[in-house]
Amino acid sequence: MKRNMGKVLLTSGLMGAWVILVGGCVSQQKYDELTRTHRICNDERVRLGSDLANALADKQKLQSDLEEANRNLAGKDAMIAALQGSSDSSGDALRQLTKLYDELAKRNPTDPIQIVQLPPELDKALKEFAAKYPEAVQYDSARGVLKFMSDVLFDLGSDEVKATAKSSLNEFAGIINSPAAADFDLVIVGHTDTKRIGKPETRAKHPTNWHLSVHRAIAVMNVFHGDAVSENRMGVMGYGEFRPLTGNDTAEGQSKNRRVEIFLTPKHTVGTVKSKAAMPAEAPAPAPPEEKEK
Length: 294
What we know:
Elements: H1 2-24, H2 28-106, H3 120-132, E1 137-140, E2 145-149, H4 150-153, H5 163-176, E3 184-191, H6 200-205, H7 209-226, E4 234-238, H8 251-257, E5 259-266
Parallel strand pairs: 3-4
Antiparallel strand pairs: 1-2, 2-5, 3-5
Helix pairs in contact: 3-5, 5-7
């Protein structure tokens, strides 16, 4: 009896333990749900980690781009400052030459104080030079001014000196390099008529008559420099159609207005606004631009 009672008690204990174990476990469905949730959370953590890494990389690239942009901006600011300085310097030189030109234009040619007194030897050489090229050159002995007609020097709309005209310029350079002209500098001034720059190929080189007149003065200067006239003795200017000798309503008037003038000024006066040279009195105002294109 006691032995049977012991068996019953043992069996009851085992059943109780089984009940406890079963009561402490979760169902397979709940376990699967927890596993799936854990997997989803882990995938989300990996995705977020990847997004964070990409965001950090983008931030670093943007920072690098910003630094590069700041460097470029600083470089452009420095370039602008340098160009502004160059522009100011060029503007000062142009203003000096413009002041010289305007001062010369206001001179009274009858006033002996304003007249360049060329040495007889130089005056004689220039008179003989002008007489040799009557169709191309006019010489004003009283003011020491030579006018080269542009139609002889250049084709219409061009700043390339004609081969047929170079010999006369070479000869003039020889006079300027002579001892008689050693105490004189040159101011080379280009002028045009009022025909507008219309042809695309011409406008690409000379956007306006201002450009064309200056480019022609420079072309003449380059010929002289090639003949050993020192650049320190020369200044160039251009006035486009704004300093005409006569009206532009006829072909003859236009031809007269297309010219390159050369002023002999006392040495070291180019750019110093101290020249005693003189120009003709104020010329008539230009006629309205012609429609014919260069």
